[in-house]
Amino acid sequence: MDTTNLADTLERLIAPVVAGLGLELYGLELVGGEGQLIVRVYIEREGGVTIDDCATVSRHIGLLLDVEDPIPGRYALEVSSPGLERPLFTPAQAASHVGATVEVRLHAPLPDVPGRRNFKGELTGVNGDTMHVAVDGVSYALPFSHVAKCRLRITDWDAVKKGAHS
């Protein structure tokens, strides 16, 4: 199963349903493989997402996927908000979090950084399709096309408790 094509197909099917419910499709992840695939759908809206929003979206998407049947075999559907330690799926999403701590995993090491796939540091900028992450004083240019996963990491939970998200 080609998960990239499946993810694109699912986004095209799901985005209009989510928008029709007054929410935005933030992104989706496919985890696992055939027979045990998990489809994680992240939704958001100004002011936040409720559990009822997630349940409603899940019902609508479930019905759509039953009719369209784009997924071979069994799967589990999970719908949630992206949360504070949210995944970053696009350069635009990353650009809105410059200055934050991120964890990045690449599909494979880059030629100029052999043997290294994982980076945790400050997101210092986004230029086009490339994010710049500073790790221990060294800046790395990481093309989004090589990113398997990118997620915000909270480093100051006390600030979060006081209402400052970073």
Notable characteristics:
166 residues; alpha+beta; GMP Synthetase, Chain A, domain 3; SH3 type barrels; 5-stranded antiparallel beta sheet; 3-stranded mixed beta sheet; 4 helices; 8 strands; 34% strand; globular
Protein model, in words:
The chain has 166 residues and is an alpha+beta fold. It folds into two domains: 78 residues, GMP Synthetase, Chain A, domain 3, CATH 3.30.300.70; 71 residues, SH3 type barrels (Roll), CATH 2.30.30.180. The chain has four helices and eight strands. It has a five-stranded antiparallel β-sheet with strand order 7-6-5-4-8. A three-stranded mixed β-sheet has the order 1-2-3. A hairpin with a 5-residue loop joins strand 1 and strand 2. Helix 1 packs across helix 2. The chain is globular, with a radius of gyration of 17 Å. The termini are far apart.
